[in-house]
Structures are given as structure tokens and as C-alpha cells.
Amino acid sequence: MAIKLKATKRDNLQKSSTKEIRQRGDVPGVVYGKEKDPVTLSVNSIELLKTVRDHGRNAIISLDVEGGDTLDVMLHEHQIDPLKDELIHADFYAVNMQQEVDVEVSINVEGEPEGVREGGVLQQPLYAVALRAKPGDIPESITVDVSELQIGDSLMVSDLKEGRNYELLEDENTTIVSVTPPEEVPTEPEEETDEQPDILKDPDEDEDEDNENS
């Protein structure tokens, strides 16, 4: 289901107009799309950030543009002022709800592996997975349950559940998570000393020396 946001068309592209937009708490943006001319507009920056925080980067946003137009879009890119930590620009991509798009979706790990309770270490080399789906079928995230993994076990892309409404684009042999054995602490070598060991003499040698001296 698309999240609705109000938008205002932006015909004046001068810097002074852009500054006014930001001063009133909005962010200037552009909507791009196949077979569609770019549309310049502005939206409330706080509402946009809240939408991304609550529903993820792949959320479908229905822009209710002043004047009666409605645009189904996805946030493509956004720029943040590093000094003020404020949203200063947003690029949207117009989507057709009946056409598939390629996106990346984050992976969430759920549970504590049995192998970790036995001393193993959980490794997660893959934090997001590429997939293809219609905009309305894009999951906010993909959750994998790792609670039954033992030491030496792993979950691959091929282990993700079937029956989904999307096509995975990752290599099915890619590891998502694994439980590795605990690292062995190397034993410290014994310290070497410069002292020479005592040499045991043959008692007969001492007797021979006494005889020579007498």
C-alpha cells in the first residue's frame, strides 16, 4: 500500500525560490521516469524522512500533487547537508505498479543460534539482497531465523523461503549468515633465557685432575 504525501509543483527554479522552500520546512525534488518528462516539486522534509525511516527506502509513495495529479514514486536518492544535518534535495523515480523493478532489500537476522550458545561466532557477510518485483510486492525487509544453526552451519540465498512474490537476483550459493568455530587462543611460547645450563662433569675426571696435581 502506498504512503500518501502532499506535494507542490515547483515552477520557479531560481536559488531564491529554493531557499524559501527549505526555510518553510519543505525539500525541493524531481520526479523522473521512463517515457515521462521530469516534474519539479517540493514535499515536507520531516514527513519524507519519517516515511523512509518507518517504511524503508523501497516504500511506494503516492505524491498527491497540488492541482489534482497523483504520482506513484520511489525515493531514488536524497542529499543531506553534512553541516546542518538537513535534507536539501530528493530525487524520485516514477513507477508503474504493474511493471517489475530491481531493488536492494535489507536482511534482518532473528534469533540466537544454538552454535553461538556453545561458543561459536555468528558471521553475516550479506546485509542486503538484490531482487526483482512489482512495486507493490517489494518487502520492507527479509527476515532469516538463525536459532537452529549449529557450529559449522550456514544459511545461503538458496535457503530463503519459496512462495515469495519476487525474484532473487543474487547467486544462490552466496552465504547470508554462518556460525564459525570459536577462535583458539594461541599458547604463549616459553621464554628463552640467556643462561647456559650447568654441565655435569664425570667424577673420574675430577679424580684424574687431583692425581696430576699431586
Automatic annotation (TrEMBL):
Residues 171-214 are annotated as: Disordered. SUPFAM superfamilies: Ribosomal protein L25-like. Residues 5-92 form the Large ribosomal subunit protein bL25 L25 domain. GO terms for cellular component: cytosolic large ribosomal subunit. GO terms for molecular function: 5S rRNA binding; structural constituent of ribosome. GO terms for biological process: translation. Keywords: Ribonucleoprotein, Ribosomal protein, RNA-binding, rRNA-binding. InterPro entries: Rbsml_bL25/Gln-tRNA_synth_N, Ribosomal_bL25/Gln-tRNA_synth, Ribosomal_bL25_b-dom, Ribosomal_bL25_C, Ribosomal_bL25_long, Ribosomal_L25_dom, Ribosomal_uL5_bac-type. Residues 100-182 form the Large ribosomal subunit protein bL25 beta domain. Residues 185-214 have a biased composition (Acidic residues). Gene3D superfamilies: Ribosomal protein L25, beta domain (2.170.120.20), Ribosomal Protein L25, Chain P (2.40.240.10). Belongs to the bacterial ribosomal protein bL25 family. CTC subfamily. NCBIfam families: bL25_bact_ctc, PRK05618.2-4. Part of the 50S ribosomal subunit; part of the 5S rRNA/L5/L18/L25 subcomplex. Contacts the 5S rRNA. Binds to the 5S rRNA independently of L5 and L18. This is one of the proteins that binds to the 5S RNA in the ribosome where it forms part of the central protuberance. This is Large ribosomal subunit protein bL25. It comes from Salimicrobium jeotgali. The gene is rplY.
